[in-house]
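Proteins fold. Shown next:

***
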Amino acid sequence: MSRIGTSYVVRRLLVFFFVIWATASVNFLVPRLAPGDPMAATLARLSMGSDRVEDGAEIIEQYREKFGLDQSLAVQYLKYLGAVARFDFGYSLASFPSRVMEIIGRALPWTVGLLLTTTIISFALGILLGALVAWRSGERFVEFLAAPFIVLAAIPYYLLALLLVYALSFGLHLFPSGGTTRIGATMEWSLPCILDILHHSILPALSIILSSIGGRMISMRSMMVKVMESDYLTLARAKGLPDGRVFLWYAARNAILPEITTLGISLGFVVSGATLVEVVFSYPGIGYQLYRAIGNSDFNLIQGITLIMVISVATAILVLDLIYPRLDPRITYTDK
């Protein structure tokens, strides 16, 4: 018997597409209501280093016509919705003639590689430590191991990133302070280049992992405490099952279910990047590109990045919602 009714799936899909439409609409309006003229900002960058730029007003008007900014908001909105349906966000205003999807395509692998790795590592370590802290409550070794992560959880990851740069890069000179490869290096599929990229990625990854483990650990510990009071756990012990089997298959297995939800949402946020960490380390991911786009009033790039972020999160929540009955047999979404 199916645990998910057809009408429920249809409702969830309608909600999913409504969220995308609403986000796209807000995404269209907010940059245009914000102060600043992207064309004037572009002209200002072009004029840097020179005394003046001839016919500045005419150039701005030509740019506005080129990108359709001289049309009414209604016309721009309808064209925008049609382009969004094709995942065509046009040209970047600040990096013309580069297209928005080209910029996103170049930045996305860096962000996914960094965030996917750090999310999985921090989840695994946080869940394991949280389960052990609850299961071995009172043991000094476990508490000594968990205490530093609780302290680090109170520090925002971008501040932790600055501390790591100061201590491990400027102080001990163990890692580079930013970038993805050494200056002048050529990007290629070779072992030295891959090792160089990994070496440059350690500090950004550490800042995210160290600040995330504590929160996941505390959350898992609270779930383990509730599970340890359950009757089925008492029954498992009464049957004489090994302590390790009771811990893994009865306690941790049931306590981890709510954490799967947070993992799914976190994976959805992988595409959004860690903006401040990427800015601190000049890491060319999605977050860094969004930061630059906001500074340059690049409407098209802002719209493209934020919409991709929302779609990824909404998709992760939708998939998680539909597969959750498979993870927990007690949950059903059947039609009445």
